[in-house]
Amino acid sequence: MGISIELEVNGASVSKEVEPRLLLAHLLREELGLTGTKIGCDTSQCGSCTILLDGQAVKSCTVLAVQADGSEITTIEGLANGEYHPVQQAFWDNHGLQCGFCTPGMIISCVDLLSTNPQPSEDEIRHGLEGNLCRCTGYHNIVRAVQDAAETMNG
Amino acid sequence: MYPSKFDYHRPSSVQEAVQILSDNPDAKVLAGGHSLIPVMKLRLAAPAALVDIGRIDALQGISRSNGSLRIGACVTYNEIANSADVQAAAPLLAEAAGQIGDRQVRYRGTIGGNLSHADPASDLPAAALALGATLHVTGTGGSRSVSASDFFVDLMMTALQPDEILTEVEIPATAAGTGSAYVKFEHPASGYALCGAAALVSRGDGGSCTGASLCFNGVSSTAVSASGVASGLVGSDLSDDAIVSAVSGLSIPDATGDMFASAGYRQELAKSIGIQALLTARDRA
């Protein structure tokens, strides 16, 4: 039984007929080709699949595509607007990554964190990113990147 | 990982939702999905149909009136943790909700889903029990109210009938002079509570204890109230010694032992975390 859904993904309207069991992460990666969103643990722990759903960071491996019907979605591919988003630039400048697998989810979570707390302390950054795991353990530079992005975004 | 196939229903009212549940005995209710979807992906659950209640307006919103707080079943942990009304009227619930999972999970998980799922290692059941919450439920036969103390029946079993949905959680506002705290010792990987303690402590004008409540998550198959500790504290001066002494005899019936912690370890954790929660609640009273 297919269900018709309509979404706005990275600013573009998308209409799809989907199986109810299709996960949002699979819709993005396999149906829309947006493979920047990663699937890591597939058990809602690692945060690699984090995307913005109506502006909130959520784990797209634990959301059904049908639940997102009518929503606005932003993936890592939709952040840059001619130039890198300040959080992307800060990750680049501070080498906030090692292998890079967690990076799309990490950056999306940072965008969400800074939208609710524009000047987080180091403690708040570490706490705010507890839903994203970096198996390279590159957390120090990730924290530096968030601090740098906060500074840039606060002008 | 994909769940098994299922039919998907998205009712727009509670009445419609309970009718679908009644017509489909193998259906499950989907709210935030952060407990249900993982177990469906692991094929530990394979319901024939999901009833998505996430868009029912009547299940949204937080309101305060006549000394009580009413929270719609589909209100998320994030909304609860950050709500000025909850922070003012039931700070214990806001504190517990803010400790669930992580930021992403808190945007999706709901109070109704949490309590209905009745995972003993989750954080809200003990808070609901300690606060004396009343749970409003609706089925095809009408609506009824169940106290939190009657709601949690056994491991992941509640008083909800198959065609009933939890619609609203009503919580008496925490009185002035009452302090509260939720303290948990969490499993470092999952964040679930090996032991979580929800405490309320009331002080009279003279400083002595006029009321207390201490409830635990994670220790046995349901959230439990340590009523003996609470009654032992009433009338005491709430000194550190009085609190330690009240907790010293704590023994929770049928404590759980599993791969993470033995039953004996959980009993000891309950004492230690219980003392911390009571001390913090006292200091806030």
Automatic annotation (TrEMBL), chain A:
Pathway assigned in UniProt: Alkaloid degradation; nicotine degradation
Instruction: List the molecular function annotations (GO) for this entry.
Output: 2 iron, 2 sulfur cluster binding; metal ion binding; oxidoreductase activity
Q: Is Oxidoreductase one of the keywords?
A: yes
InterPro entries reported in the protein's UniProt record = 2Fe-2S-bd (IPR002888), 2Fe-2S-bd_dom_sf (IPR036884), 2Fe-2S_ferredoxin-like_sf (IPR036010), 2Fe-2S_ferredoxin-type (IPR001041), Beta-grasp_dom_sf (IPR012675), Diverse_Oxidoreductases (IPR051452)
| Keyword annotations | 2Fe-2S, Iron, Iron-sulfur, Metal-binding, Oxidoreductase
One Pfam family name is: Fer2
Q: Where is the 2Fe-2S ferredoxin-type domain?
A: 3-79
The membrane spanning regions, by residue number, are none
User: What's the name of the protein?
Assistant: (2Fe-2S)-binding protein
The species this protein belongs to is Caldilineaceae bacterium SB0675_bin_29
